[in-house]
Amino acid sequence: MRKKLTRLGSETAKIGFYLPNPPNLPADWDGASKVNIEELITLNGNHWRKIFVIMAKIVCPNNDWRDYLPLLLQQNESIHFGQSTLCPNAKIHLVCGQQSALALSLDILTEPQSFRVINQSNQQIYLLPYLDYRQCPNHTIASLRTALAAYKKGA
């Protein structure tokens, strides 16, 4: 029986996303392999394509998220599933949706299409809506990118 997936991406990533449930993985997944975003999208469909695209839009170092998408989760980011504690290596935590916030004992967002920042013991926590275009549209992503850039500049 396969162990439940708790993380995708680098163990030493400085940016951690938190989601309630993992995608389906290829049958030959060994946990040590690099994440192949296209393979995961093919296996999981449009729902996970949207999640990965929104993630790429949030963290890409420039505005070219399409070029960054295949590089997502290779080094700088990780996704943590159903966690009750924050990843100790990450400095930026992007908590996506109510389920993830509640699992981490954080308040939930009450304003639609928004995010909130929590500063906690030298870590930056961003409470986000679930990564869906209706809940996390481009204007929310743009505001979040501005907040992340300001934090990185001051850090």
Would you kindly provide a written description of the structure presented here, covering whatever features stand out?
The protein has 155 residues and is an alpha/beta fold. The protein has a single domain, classed as Uracil-DNA Glycosylase, subunit E, CATH 3.40.470. Helix content is 32%, strand content 19%. The protein is built from five helices and six strands, in the order ββαααββαββα. It has helices at residues 37-44, 46-59, 65-68, 98-103, 138-154; strands at residues 7-9, 15-19, 77-81, 92-96, 116-120, 123-128. It has a six-stranded mixed sheet with strand order 1-3-2-4-6-5.
Extended strand count: 6
Helical coverage, percent range: 25-40%
Radius of gyration: 15 Å
Distance between the termini: 43 Å
Give me the number of helical elements: 5
> What number is the mean pLDDT?
92
How much strand content do the residues show? 15-25%
Oligomerization category of the chains in this entry: single chain
CATH architecture, by name, is 3-Layer(aba) Sandwich
Walk me through the topology:
Blueprint (H helix, E strand, L loop, with lengths): L6 E3 L5 E5 L17 H8 L1 H14 L5 H4 L8 E5 L10 E5 L1 H6 L12 E5 L2 E6 L9 H17 L1
Parallel strand pairs: 2-3, 2-4, 4-6
Antiparallel strand pairs: 1-3, 5-6
Helix pairs in contact: 1-2, 2-5
